[in-house]
């Protein structure tokens, strides 16, 4: 059985990443609400591929943790950042920034596009 260690999420609200995710959300869906975007764009599989960040410590990978995450702006930001960073891996040179993740979104399966899920 695989065990996961769930730690409190770093607060990314009002950070450059938060601003970028909000802009990306608006560009892809026409909406500024991260929670509305997440409801339609972050599937359970996307969330688990993003290392399943959780709002509360040690809650595990389950539907309840997923539901809480997509209802929390900070957790949504972590989900998108984790997924993009994981997907890009060695595909880009230099430090992986959220701007590189956003610019590569057309190459990333399932990122902010319900039609690709």
TrEMBL record:
Catalysed reactions, as listed in the record: Hydrolysis of (1->4)-beta-linkages between N-acetylmuramic acid and N-acetyl-D-glucosamine residues in a peptidoglycan and between N-acetyl-D-glucosamine residues in chitodextrins
PROSITE patterns xrefs: LYSOZYME_I
Keyword Glycoprotein assigned: no
Gene Ontology biological process terms from the UniProt entry: defense response to bacterium; killing of cells of another organism
Region forming the signal peptide: 1-22
Record EC number: 3.2.1.17
Record key words, sorted: Antimicrobial, Bacteriolytic enzyme, Disulfide bond, Glycosidase, Hydrolase, Signal
InterPro entries per record: Invert_lysozyme (IPR008597)
A Pfam match: Destabilase
Keyword rRNA-binding set for record: no
Domain of life: Eukaryota
Name of the protein this chain belongs to: lysozyme
Organism per entry: Oryctes borbonicus
Lineage of source species: Eukaryota, Metazoa, Ecdysozoa, Arthropoda, Hexapoda
């Amino acid at each position: 059985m695989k065990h996961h260690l769930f730690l409190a999420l770093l607060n990314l609200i009002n950070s450059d990443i938060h601003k970028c995710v909000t802009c990306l959300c608006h560009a892809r869906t026409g909406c500024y609400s991260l929670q509305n975007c997440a409801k339609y764009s972050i599937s359970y599989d996307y969330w688990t591929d993003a290392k399943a960040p959780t709002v509360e410590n040690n809650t595990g990978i389950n539907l309840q943790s997923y539901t809480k995450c997509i209802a929390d702006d900070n957790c949504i930001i972590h989900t998108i950042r984790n997924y993009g960073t994981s997907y890009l891996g060695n595909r880009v040179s230099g430090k992986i920034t959220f701007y590189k993740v956003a610019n590569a979104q057309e190459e990333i399966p399932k990122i902010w596009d319900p039609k690709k899920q």
